[in-house]
Design brief:
Number of helices: 2
Order of helices and strands: HEEEEEEEEEEEHEEEEEEEE
Radius of gyration: 20 Å
Structural class: mainly beta
Strand content: over 45%
Number of strands: 19
Distance between the termini: 24 Å
Shape: globular
């Protein structure tokens, strides 16, 4: 168990990351706004762009950050695993929009020597939603996206985008297809046949004990990923036991941040069972 960090970057790459975060350096090609789909911003390991639909009557703007790693490269989930760079998106407040949330399609566990990454080795789109103050007015919005693209080393990739959004009659077909397809790849919510049925900290909070209800067609043990405090991820299970559609396992918690109080906190959990995935949260009282 390790706390997230940038994977053993060479000094020049680590310096580039610090400069990127603190000074807003743009890596790759700067993008100029073009309706609801920006041009691609590119770098050595891949490319990315933003697609967004016009504001809905209630002020909601649906969009997606498309990331396309080059063959042999990967990008990361919201918790990268043992090392890596999680995606970040920032929208200018001056544009009158607030980022409500970003969603993440089902990732995969990617072995990289002694390290285990959590992410994507294929093109991925991260759906997001904005809230705008006045959906009836045209909106010129600045956005910044920051991701990691990794092969042998991690390359921090930041690009600035401009979006020109305005109410229109009907729905732009191409953009809607991209965003709806991205939404279709998100984990499902808990249901009667796929859920967490019990969870508890045991052994002095050194182990998280889980009991799951799995879909009937599940044959192989599920993959379980638990996200705790930022940068702390659990994906090593022990004592896995399946009895019909019930599965139990223990997950070593590892070293939590100093003076961390779990009471009142919520941890995330993603369960991948066969061709289905379920995501929910664990509330600790």
């Amino acid at each position: 168990m390790k706390i997230n960090s940038v994977r053993s970057l060479p000094a020049r790459a680590l310096g580039a990351l610090v400069a990127c975060v603190t000074a807003g350096t743009i890596l790759g090609s700067p993008a100029v706004g073009r309706a609801e789909t920006t041009p691609w911003a590119t770098t050595e390991g891949g490319r990315m762009r933003i697609v967004a639909l016009p504001p809905e009557p209630d002020g909601t703007v649906r969009g997606a950050l498309q990331i396309e790693p080059r063959p042999g490269w990967i990008t990361y989930w919201k918790e990268p695993g043992d090392a890596g760079i999680p995606p970040q998106m920032v929208f200018s407040k001056a544009g009158g929009a607030t980022l409500s949330h970003v969603s993440y399609p089902v990732p995969k566990r990617i072995a990289n020597g002694k390290l285990n990454d959590i992410g994507y080795d294929h093109p991925v789109a991260l759906p997001f939603e904005l809230k705008v103050e006045d959906p009836g007015k045209p909106l010129n919005l600045g956005a910044s996206a920051f991701v990691g693209l990794c092969r042998n080393i991690c390359i921090p990739f930041q690009a600035e985008f401009s979006l020109a959004l305005a109410p229109v009659k009907g729905t732009p077909v191409e953009e809607a297809m991209i965003i709806n397809q991205a939404a279709s790849k998100l984990p499902e919510a808990p249901s009667d046949d796929f859920a967490v049925t019990h969870y508890a900290m045991t052994q002095g909070r050194e182990t998280l004990n889980l009991k799951l209800k799995l879909p009937e067609e599940t044959a192989a043990p599920p993959q379980v990923i638990v996200t705790g405090p930022q940068g702390h991820v659990l994906f090593d299970g022990a004592n896995g036991h399946q009895d019909g559609d019930s599965y139990s396992l223990d997950m070593p918690v590892g070293k939590l941040p100093k003076n961390y109080d779990i009471k009142g906190k919520r941890w995330g959990i993603l369960v991948i069972a066969g061709n289905r995935a379920m995501e929910t949260s664990l509330a600790f009282e």
